[in-house]
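Inputs:
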Amino acid sequence: MSQENVTPDLARERSKATFDVENLAEFMIGGRDRLKRKRFLQNIAIQDPFFKKQKSWSFCSVEEQYDMGLSKSIYIQKKLQEMGITDMQEAFYYRECAAAHENSPLGLHYAMFLPTINKQATPEQKKKWLPLAENYKMIGTYAQTELGHGTFIRGLETTATYDPKTKEFILDSPTLTSKKYWPGCLGKTSNHCVVMAQLYTQGKSHGPHMFMVQIRSMEDHSVLPGIEVGVIGNKFGYGTNDNGFLSFDKLRIPRENMLMRYSQVGRIPRENMLMRYSQVSRIPRENMLMRYSQVHEDGTYVKPQNAKLAYGSMVLIRSSIVSDAARGLAQACVISIRYSAVRRQTEAYPGGEEPQILDYQTQQYRLFPLLASAYSLQLAGKYVFNTYLEVNDQIEKGNLESMPELHALSAGLKAFSTYEASAGIEVCRICCGGHGYSQASGLPKIYVDVVPGCTYEGENTVMMLQTARYLMKCYSRAKQGQKLPGFVQYIGQNLNKKSCMSEEVALGCLVMAYEHRAARLVEAAAMRMQSLIQGGKKQHEAWNGSSVQLFWAAKAHCHLFCVKNFVDAIQAKSLSSKTVTVMKSVCQLYGVHGILENLGEFMQDGFFSGEQVGYLQRKMLALFENIRPNAVALVDAFDYPDMVLGSCLGRYDGQVYQALYDYAKSAPMNQTEIHSTYYKHLKPLINPETTSDAMQFAKL
Amino acid sequence: MSQENVTPDLARERSKATFDVENLAEFMIGGRDRLKRKRFLQNIAIQDPFFKKQKSWSFCSVEEQYDMGLSKSIYIQKKLQEMGITDMQEAFYYRECAAAHENSPLGLHYAMFLPTINKQATPEQKKKWLPLAENYKMIGTYAQTELGHGTFIRGLETTATYDPKTKEFILDSPTLTSKKYWPGCLGKTSNHCVVMAQLYTQGKSHGPHMFMVQIRSMEDHSVLPGIEVGVIGNKFGYGTNDNGFLSFDKLRIPRENMLMRYSQVGRIPRENMLMRYSQVSRIPRENMLMRYSQVHEDGTYVKPQNAKLAYGSMVLIRSSIVSDAARGLAQACVISIRYSAVRRQTEAYPGGEEPQILDYQTQQYRLFPLLASAYSLQLAGKYVFNTYLEVNDQIEKGNLESMPELHALSAGLKAFSTYEASAGIEVCRICCGGHGYSQASGLPKIYVDVVPGCTYEGENTVMMLQTARYLMKCYSRAKQGQKLPGFVQYIGQNLNKKSCMSEEVALGCLVMAYEHRAARLVEAAAMRMQSLIQGGKKQHEAWNGSSVQLFWAAKAHCHLFCVKNFVDAIQAKSLSSKTVTVMKSVCQLYGVHGILENLGEFMQDGFFSGEQVGYLQRKMLALFENIRPNAVALVDAFDYPDMVLGSCLGRYDGQVYQALYDYAKSAPMNQTEIHSTYYKHLKPLINPETTSDAMQFAKL
C-alpha cells in the first residue's frame, strides 16, 4: 500500500514494529504467491473506473442499493470471465474488493440455483435447464424458509401434491405461515426458484422435496398466475439483496419439475441446503448430502436409497462462516487500531501532549484481545477448511472416522465465532468514539453484514447444542473405556488436577487449563442430564433441562479448540523467529484474556488458586505493553486494502479527518445549500403567514 | 390494550400470570394517576390520523426521514401547546408515542438553545433573542464537539479573538480538526448556533466560552458569508437528525454576542453542556454549572467568580441516559419475550408439538436475565432522579455533602447501563431468529437509538474512570479512619469474610456478595496504583497503568448499586404481596446471574466456595421456572403500547405473521410488479441483444 501521505503517527508506529509484516501476511493467507496474486486481483478492482464512479452505498436508498448491487454483480461476473478466473478463491479476492460487504442479488443464482440443477437434476432435467440458467434466461434462487418455519425443516408447510390424472404436482401455500419468507434474490430478481415442499402422493406424506418452479415470465418478467412474490421489506443490512416472500395458490407444475436425481429428505438439518453467496462460491458442490427419491407417473413414491451421510458440505459452509466472521472482526480491528493510533485525546497531565488513545490501558484492554481473537478465528476457519480437505480424501477412500468430530466442531465454531466477532465488531466501533457511529467509519456496515451469521445457516444455540450432543456421546464412550478420536481425547480425563500455571504463563499450561475446563463442563452437563433422568424426567425434558450447561460445555470445547489451534499454528516453519515472538504474545493474550473473562469456570473446582489468577492478571497487562509497539503492524498484516475496509477511520495513510470531511461534503443533502424541507416545513414555521401541511393538520 | 384478536398462546400466557399487572405497572411509573395520564396522552397520539398516515420510517431514505422528523416535530409541539401541556414528563409520554426513537431536528432548539439563552445570556441579550427564538425566527442549536476533539473540552481549537478596535470577536476555524462536527440539528435546520470557542483577548487565552452566531439568513435560509455548514453524512441511526459540521473563516460578530451572564470555563467536563433532546426536555435548566465571565469593551477579561460547583445537571442528564437505556432494553424484552411465546419451533421429541421457544431453557437463559436487568436499570434511573431532587433541596440549603457520591454514581451508571442495555438489545434481537434482522421487528431501530449512549455525553470508559476516581478518594479516606457517606460505606471493609450464601439464596447474601466484590476490587485497584507509584511511576502513569483495574472496580460499584437498589425497591408498600413474590424472583435472578457472569471476581479470594457456586447455578435454573409463567405479564407491566414498540413481533395481540406479511406488502419495492432495475440491468442480461450500462462498460 502506498507510503505516500502517511501521517507521522502511523509512519512511526510502522517503523517501531519488531517483525516483518510481509512474513506474517504471507503466513496468514497461505504463502507468498497467493498474497501476490491476491494483491494483483484486488488492484484491478481498485484501479477500475467502473467502481470508482459508484456513489457511496451509505448515501443510497435501499432501492438504489439493490440497483447498484445488481449492476455491480453483473459487471463482476463479466470481468471474472474476461480475466478467465475460475478458481473460487481468486474470484473471492476480486469480489471482496469490488463489492465489499455487499450481498449480490445474483448470488444465489451462482451459488445455489446452478449447483442444485447440476447436482440434483436428472440428465434430462439438466439438459433442459442448464443452458437456460447458464445463459441467464432462467435466473433462479432457492426457497426453503417460511414465514413461520426456519431451522426445523420437517415443520415446513408448503405442499406439493401429486395428481396422477394430469401428471402434475399441485404446489400450495395452505396457511399464512407457509409463505416462503427470507430467501435471497427472490423478491424482484429471479424468474425461477427451486422450492422445498412437503411431497404428498397417493394420500401419503413423504417429507420435504425439491421442485423447480417458474415464478416470472422469461419474456417480460411479469409474475405468473398462481404465484405471489415480492420483497420482505427492509432489513438491518443486506440492502443489496432482495430477500423475498413467495406463495402458491394451487399452482400446477409438471411431474418432471420435481428434482429427482437426488433429493433431500426430512431429517437433515437445513444447513446443508441454504447457502449464502459469499460462502458457497468457494465450496465444491459434490459434497451435498444426497439421497435418491422419485415419484413415478402413477404416483408411486420411490424411497431414497441409503446413501452414506456425508457431512462435508455442512463442515465447509460452517468453516466459511467462521472465516467470514473472523474477517469482519479483523477488519474492525484494522479500523479501530489504526484510528486509535491517529486519534489523540485528553492530556495525561496538565499541559502535557494529548496521547494517542491507543496508549490508554483501557483502550488496549478493549482492542488487543479482539485483535488476538481475530487471529485465532482466522486460524480456526483455516484449520477446519484444510482438515475438511484431508478428511474428504479419507471419505473418498471409504473412511468416515474423522468426520463426526470435525462436523461437531464446525457447528459449534460457527456459533462461537459469529457471537465473538459480532460483539467484538461493536466494541471496535465504540472504541472509535462518536465517529464510529458514522457510516463513514465503515463499521456499522461490517457489523450488519456479520451479525446475521448468528441466526442464518442454523441458529447459534441449535448449533452449540449439536456440538454438545456429540460431546455427550464422547463422554459416554469415554466412561465405557473407549478411546476417543483426536481432539476430543481430553473428555473424561481426570479432573482432580491443579493448574501448572506459573508467572511465565507457558502456552502448555494455558492449553491444559482450557482442556480441564472443557472436560469439567462436559462432565457437569452429563451429570445434570443423568440426575434429571434418574429423577424421572423423560429424555427430551432432561435434555432441555440441561441445555444451559450443555451450551456452556460446547462453548468451552470450541474455546479450547481455538486456543490449542492457535498454539499449534504459530509453530509453523514459515514464520520467522521475530514473527513468532510477537505472535506468541498475541496467542498468550488470547488464552489469558479468555480465562479471565470466564474465570469462574476455571476456579469453581479449585483448579486455579487465587495466586495463579494474579499471575494471569499481571501477565495480561504486561502483554498489552508487549503488543503495543506492534499493534499497527499486526493489523497491517491482515492486508486489507482501503477499498475492502470502506472506512474513513481505518485508512492506511491515517488521513482520517480529511476523509471524514470529504465524506460529509459528498452527502446528497449537502448538494443544495437549502434543503427542500425548508420550504415545506421550516419557512411556514418562521413566517407563519404561509402554512405547512403539518400546521394545517394541527388546526383541524 | 385491546384484548381483541389476541392469539391463544398469548391469551393463555396472560391468564397464567400469578400477579396483577396493573399493580406492577403503577409501581414502575410512580402511581395510578400517572399511569392513567400516560395512557390518556399516548392514546391521543395513537388515535391521531396525522401519525397514522405517516409512511413507515424504515421505508424512508435519510432525506425523507429528516423531512418526516421535522414535520412531526413541528406538529407535536403544536399539539402540546394546544393541549396546554407544560409538564416535561407529560410531554415526554406524548412524544415517546408520537415519534418513538426518532430524534427531532428541532430537539436542540428546545432543549439547548432556548435554555442557554434563558440561563447564560444577560438581560439585554435575553430581551433581544428570546422573543425571536420563541417565535421561531431564530432556530438554534449548540456546537461544541469538533472533528478532532470530543470529551476533552480544553482541546477545542475554534477561536474567538477579541478586536477592541471594532468591538468584535473574530471567530475562526484555524485547522481541519477545528471544524465543529456532530452537533445535532445543525446541518440544515438551524439559522443560529451557540458556539463554544477558545476566547482570546489582549493576547491571552482564557479557555472556552460561548458565543451566539447567526449562520443562515432568517429571511431565506441562505448560508451567511464566512460560514461553512452542512450535514456530516449518514449514520448508523438518527436519520431524523441533521447532525452537522460548521466552520468559520474569520467571521466577525459583535462583542454583545458573547454570552456574558454566566459562561462555561475550561476545566468542566462537557457532559453538562451537550444535551440530547429526549433527555434535557425533562431537566430543569437551573442546574447548569455556571460561573461568571465577561470581556469589557476594551478587551479586559473579567474572570468568573468562584461559584459553588453544582453537579446537578450532570447527575440529571446521566440519570436520564440510564432511563433511556433501560427503556430501550425493556422494549426489546417486550418484543422478544412476546414473540418467543408466539413462535413455535422444532418438536421436542419425534411427533410432539413444536413448543413455544420460550419453553427452551437456553432461550430463558438469554432473555430472563435481560428482563431482570431492564427492571433493575429502570429502578436505578428512577432512584438517581429522585435522589437528585432530594439532594437538590439540600443544596438549596447550602448542604453539598451528598452530591459528590451521587455524581460519581451517576457517571458510572451511565456507562454501566448503556453497555448493558446495548448488548442486551442485540441479544433480544438475535433471540428472535431471522425475523429479528428485519426492520419489521423494530429491534434494529431501538439498538441504533440506544447504542450511541455509550459514546455521547462522556465516553463510557472516561465515565467509569470518573467513578473510580471518587472510589479511590473514598478508599484513602476509609484507610485514614474517616467515616464514609451513605452507599459507599462498604469501601475499606474487612475482606477476610466468607459468603453466607445457602441454597435459598437470600437477598441479603446477594447484596453482601456484591459489596465484598466491589470492596475487594476497589482495594486491588488502590494497591496497584500504590505499587506503581512506589516503583517510581508518576501519578498519571500509575493511573493509566491501573486503569483496567480501576474500570473493574467502578463497574463492580455500579453493579452493587443496581442489586442493592433493586432489593430495596421491591420492599415498596404499594406492591401487593403477589407482585412482591414475583419481583423477588426477578431480583434474585438479577443478582445470581450477575455473580455467575462475573464469577471469578467473587471467587478469586475464596469468598465463595465451589459448593456455594453450585447453589447459585441450580437456583438460576429454578428461577427460570419460577419466572416462566409470568414472563409475558412481566413485560406487559412495562406498559408500552404497540405504537411505541413499532414492532411486528412485539405486538400485544401476538398477530406477528400477519403483521410481517402486511409490512412486506407495504414495501415501496412491492408497489410495482416489475422493478425498474429489471429494465436497466436484468433485461439486457436475459436478452443480450440490448445492452446495459454495466455491460457496455465491461466491454470498454
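Chain B is about 50% helix and 10% strand. Flag for discussion at group meeting.
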